[in-house]
Amino acid sequence: MEASKPETLMEYLDPENYIGRLVELPKDLNPLYDLDVVIRAKMLWANPILNGKLLPAYLMLKHAQEAGRLKGARTLVEATSGNMAVALAILGRYFGIERVIAVVPPNIAEGKRELLRFYGVEVMPSEDGIEMAKAMGERPGFLNLFQYGNDSNPAGYYRFLAPTIFEQMAGKISIVAAGLGTTGTIQGISEYLREKNVGTLVLGVITAAGESIPGVRTDEKLKEIKFDWGKLVDETERVGKDDAMRSSLALCRAGILAGPSSGFVLAGLMKFLRRQQRAGSLDTLRDGDGIVEAVFICFDPPHPYIHDYHDYYDETKCNVTHTEGGLHLEQAPNSLTEAF
Known about the structure:
Number of domains: 2
Distance between the termini: 51 Å
């Protein structure tokens, strides 16, 4: 028997080689289960660097190299909530990059700050991260790849993510939901599925005004994005931190490791589906078999944000149900947690 050829490290890191599991939520995490609504988590982060930004970071670096933009560049500077800088730091060394500076929000989670330091990324807090990173990128030897307006960002999800969802679902996708941060994820998925003409409804989840959730943005913050993402999103929902954290914690305790932005997307998806149910419109989402097939994107794991969950631990002793106003807690100390 011939031994398999060992892969190189770059082959190991190549996002072309990773599909990402698609995991169906059990009945106790899906209140619409008995209405033939199937909800699946796309585990985007389950790749070699445990980070969904592997996809766009790889393509941004590759395209920059092909265009000659990396010539003379030794330092990348990027405005980020953390994940992009980690991906650039890991992949960048294979493109001749020696240093990565992350311009981060001042309220970045301490766990994420430590993760950046762990990977050798220099951390620079700023309220005006995008403009600061762009200005620093003009210095000799510096480069700002500008994930908020770089077409290689959505192209990464178009090339590596969307086809896997389409194939795993055999083209039957009623609705797909993703959080809006750089908006690259939702754009890449939407463009691909529209080309396939499968009639999938694309739901973008936005951070509620005045709230802060790692990796996703409020309506006000989305104005800083240069992509015309609105034309590729069919519906939007707004979700606050409490709903995001409770949903994330419930997923994790059920065995689906999903960080705050993942719980955030699931909460937005459930809010939308509940709204359709109340309006009597749920049937418009059903496929030819009478099933509503829903997919939401899990972008990163919970570990960098562990300390942010402390205020929600006691609530795991409660039954948590969805109401018209959001999540409602009913004290039930001896019962299992019902996430939604």
